[in-house]
Amino acid sequence: MDSASREAANPLDDLDISSSPGQEKSLATTTTHPLAGTDFSHGDVGAFPPIPRAFDLYRDAFGDGRRYAYSRYRGHQDVREHVAHHVGEFTGHPVDPAREVIVTPGTQGALFLALSALVEPGDKVAVVVPDYFANSRIVTYLRAQTVPVTLHYQEPARAGELDLAGLADAFAAGVKLLVLSNPNNPTGVVYTSQQIHEIATLAGRYGAFIVVDQLYSRLVYPGASFTHLRASGISGDHCLTLLGPSKTESLSGFRVGVAVGAPHVIDRMEKLQALVSLRAPGYSQAVLRCWFTEPPGWLDRRIVEHQAIRDDLHARLHATDGVSVRLTEGGSYMFPQLPLLRVSAVEFRALLRTGHGITVTPGGEFGSGYERSFRLNFSQQRDKALEAVAIICGLATELAA
Amino acid sequence: MDSASREAANPLDDLDISSSPGQEKSLATTTTHPLAGTDFSHGDVGAFPPIPRAFDLYRDAFGDGRRYAYSRYRGHQDVREHVAHHVGEFTGHPVDPAREVIVTPGTQGALFLALSALVEPGDKVAVVVPDYFANSRIVTYLRAQTVPVTLHYQEPARAGELDLAGLADAFAAGVKLLVLSNPNNPTGVVYTSQQIHEIATLAGRYGAFIVVDQLYSRLVYPGASFTHLRASGISGDHCLTLLGPSKTESLSGFRVGVAVGAPHVIDRMEKLQALVSLRAPGYSQAVLRCWFTEPPGWLDRRIVEHQAIRDDLHARLHATDGVSVRLTEGGSYMFPQLPLLRVSAVEFRALLRTGHGITVTPGGEFGSGYERSFRLNFSQQRDKALEAVAIICGLATELAA
Fold this sequence. Notes:
The structure is a homodimer of 401-residue chains. Chain A is α/β, with parallel strands linked by helices. Chain A contains 13 helices and 13 strands. The first copy, chain A, has an 8-stranded mixed beta sheet, sandwiched between helices. The first copy, chain A, has a 3-stranded antiparallel beta sheet with strand order 10-13-12, covered by helices on one side. The N and C termini of chain A lie far apart (49 Å). Chains A and B meet through helix 1, helix 2, helix 3, helix 5 and helix 6 of A and helix 1, helix 2, helix 3, helix 5 and helix 6 of B.
């Protein structure tokens, strides 16, 4: 704010969040169409309700306020023990509850703390393109530089493929950190075991650190096989895995997530959490105790139900002239590309929203070059989602250039 | 992490949170003393339970998950309208729910977002000493420089007095931001109306911004009169007020707070919240609807009950040779100073904790020069708190140099 800093503008000034998921709630819509409220920017917790025991755990923690209202900044000890046990089992690599776990306000909280703990101003950070839009935004906010590494996902018949030569070049040029999501957000790509091992090997060769966002790693469809980076030979001091129950498990409204991995990074994250929000909500943390201990068959059913919606939507999009789309291997995102239209992507989305009450997330949020794409979170009511996608396809056909 | 940034060490490296409130939960204690668990580092929600309707509102929001799981990053509209109406009435200055309110993960979240939105690397920021320890820590984390401005509070018979000449010097030397809490944390000082008006006038003269943390402004004891900075003639574009229901109202476990004020700062805070945690917990936000609409007499009773504990504890401390303490005018903190002891402050606190199960917050957390002081949050069970303070006084007498 003094003269020196007026020159260094705040990176927040250039950040545009008006089309980010959830923000479009602030836009007026006058439609009375029956699909009004089909919001593909996030999942529908009405269609896929939270894990059955979640609310009971919350109520019990509230009732035991002396124990649960406040916690150490990294989280309640019993909750960290539960997380360590189950995440260790799930990922195939043990987790120390005292040193290797932090509970955060959502997995977004874990991502922000992790990058803040690892990135200094002026650093170069490898960011996969396309990938979760907050990755590069946080890097920019931290006054560091993103080095894009391309994920090839457009060829439906082939496995998604990270440009490993590009990644090696980035590491050779001084990049010491890679951020990626697996399953990939927004494309639904699940990296092959070979790719994950090669990424781990490259990081090891260059002493680089990897933050991997595995938020969707419990929602993987038959045919894909998920490989946990932390169990792929990477040094435990050079890897952090982000997880949470906000998506597949529909617990987003509780705002809890976790980071698991390198103790020195967890320590720094806890220090920063002391400044940012003190702790994940004390009562919400207790809800994590139903995570990974859902009723028998619950997760399998959730996967089958999502798979059915995926297949419906994919078939409809695939059958539309000029639309290209990859079959989602994991997660509940789909990232179709529209044909060339006679209207801009902004106008197209405005027509969807004001004319039909349908909200999608613009591809431009995920990197430049994706303006013709959009992201759908298909964790929705099946019939309503299919009807909305039919409208999208119809409008795309009608407006094709 | 590259060579350029290795020189610029991460400010988190020097941050020590081991004695911060709540963190001492991680220390082993083997005592079987009946007072074990007397934790003066924060309030006891068992002794002072949450606002009666809080949990019902949470349950209803959870039940209406489609509406409440996700919100715009600045918070649910209905919640912002409630907050704007009541905070406007409470502070005596209207609040625009669309432009002047953000809901955050606790009031700590509001403080972090506010300072991050206002402070650039290299800035100088005026910070009151003593004051809430996170103020200067966040400034340091943001690579800015704290300029201390002294609050004189030691003379029990006189009103607490901010060093206004020092503040004017700071403004004249280029400081464009002042951060302070009122009631002051940790001393319990409530600034006089004259002081608040003079602070507002000084800020106006130099075009400076003020962030005022009024977290405890609903818990003011008879004899003190509270003055809201935002209603004291300061420009609406140069003031942000932080509030929340975590303390007096015992809703800390829900993790919600608010910031109210300058629209351009609220905008930046929302952008940063998009990166930090997306939003305050969706269901918890709804709990704010019982804030300021408690049952008749509820708040008055809470004040009377805290006043009784304050009087007991103050009398006991005041009667102890060599202990000096100011009568708390607002909030539930007390900041006594011990006589010179034959042991260090660290050893004294360790004796309290391991020998008697009593936790206090070290004065050193609030600035250098306060090592002989400690902070008590007296929102506790009355008898247990008095017994614990008697032990503290006894030990101080026994160990006096």
